[in-house]
Design a protein that fits this description.
- The protein is α+β, with helices and mostly antiparallel strands and 325 residues long.
- It folds into 2 domains: 10-165, GAF domain (Beta-Lactamase, 2-Layer Sandwich); 175-324, Reverse transcriptase/Diguanylate cyclase domain (Alpha-Beta Plaits, 2-Layer Sandwich), CATH 3.30.70.270.
- It has helices spanning 10-19, 29-42, 77-80, 102-105, 141-165, 175-192, 206-213, 215-232, 256-277, 300-324; strands spanning 46-52, 56-63, 69-71, 87-89, 112-119, 125-133, 196-203, 238-243, 246-252, 285-291.
- The strands form 2 sheets. A 6-stranded antiparallel β-sheet has the order 3-2-1-6-5-4. It has a 4-stranded antiparallel β-sheet with strand order 8-9-7-10, sandwiched between helices.
- Strand 2 (56-63) and strand 3 (69-71) form a beta hairpin.
- Helix 2 (29-42) packs antiparallel against helix 5 (141-165) and helix 8 crosses helix 9.
Length: 325
């Protein structure tokens, strides 16, 4: 058996994959439809949409096999993303790359494999649409053309996922994307009995920025604030623009004290940004912070509501203080 080399664009490829926020998400009909169609058209027992992460092969859709992922080391698809063309293995026992592979020598005893690379919009090969059989098979040019057409369907669905879950202005997750990712992260924290916190932000005086300086400057303020959020929180934190001037961050495995420390660091970063930019207005915000409590928060929506309520209370207090001043 031969372990596949890393592609020359490996770092950018993995970053492109992670930017989709699709790994470890639940099954979706849009992808399952393609694998069911592939299995029926090619009369194979297994059809899979695979995504090659840094150290694993993860299955977004898999019909005919129960596994949800495998090690990248034994992945056929890790070899398939090294080429632009379809990779066809008619008999894995006769191929030096796979003859000693535990998936060939043991269950599920793979013999035939055909995998077509799935590309991101920027051209990086994220994984494959692949076919697997336990018997030796031929695969002609017509078969190759059909598999390419099906892989193109998967690529279109990946684009649809990105457009449906990413805010176009800020490139953060939109409300739909944020809630899906945060709910998944919350489930992990609940299962592992780890703490978690929710931050709910609202930009102060955003309407005045729009009214005085125009909507283009308002968009710039939103983009600047989004960049500050993305640059000062961890890659593992789920960050989203919920709409308008509202943002939220879910911090997994983080206590309320730890979240407070992170928030103080963010306050300093915003203060420094305002000093450096020296515009006619400063970025300012109100924020609510809540720690997950299984008794009080049945799901991510309840946690967001608690944080939103606290944020609104802070905003009211600031307005009252401004009037008194």
């Amino acid at each position: 058996m031969k372990i596949a080399e890393f592609p020359s664009d490996e770092k950018a490829r993995v970053e492109a994959l992670h930017s989709l926020h699709i790994l470890d998400t639940p099954p979706e009909e849009r992808f399952d439809r393609v694998t069911r169609l592939a299995r029926r058209l090619f009369d194979v027992p297994i059809a899979v949409v695979t995504l090659i992460d840094a150290n694993r092969q993860w299955f977004k859709s898999c019909v005919g096999m129960a596994a949800g992922e495998t090690s990248r080391d034994i992945s056929f698809c890790s070899h398939a993303i090294l080429t632009d063309d379809i990779t066809v293995v008619n008999d894995a026992t006769l191929d030096d790359r796979f003859s000693g592979n535990p998936q060939v020598t043991g269950e599920p005893h793979i013999r035939f494999y055909a995998g077509c690379p799935i590309r991101s919009e920027s051209g990086h090969k994220l994984g494959t649409l692949c076919l697997v059989d336990m018997k030796v098979r031929d695969f002609d040019q017509e078969d190759r053309a059909l598999l390419k057409d099906l892989a193109a369907m998967v690529e279109q669905e990946l684009i649809a996922v990105r457009l449906a879950t990413i805010d176009e202005l800020t490139k953060l997750s939109n409300r739909r994307g944020f809630e899906a990712l945060a709910q998944h992260a919350l489930g992990l924290c609940r299962r592992l009995k780890r703490p978690a916190c929710m931050l709910y932000f609202d930009l102060d005086k955003f309407k005045q920025i729009n009214d005085r300086f125009g909507h283009a400057e308002g968009d710039a303020a939103l983009s600047d604030f989004s960049s500050l959020l993305a640059g000062n929180f961890r890659e593992s934190d789920v960050i989203g623009r919920l709409g308008g001037d509202e943002f939220s961050i879910f911090l997994a495995n983080t206590s309320i004290d730890e979240a407070g420390a992170v928030l103080r660091h963010f306050e300093q970063a915003v203060r420094q940004f305002n000093q450096d930019r020296q515009r006619e207005y400063d970025l300012s915000y109100s924020v609510g912070i809540v720690e997950f409590d299984a008794a009080a928060h049945r799901d991510i929506a309840a946690l967001m509501h608690s944080a939103d309520t606290l944020m609104y209370e802070q905003k009211k207090q600031r307005r009252a203080a401004a009037v008194l001043h």
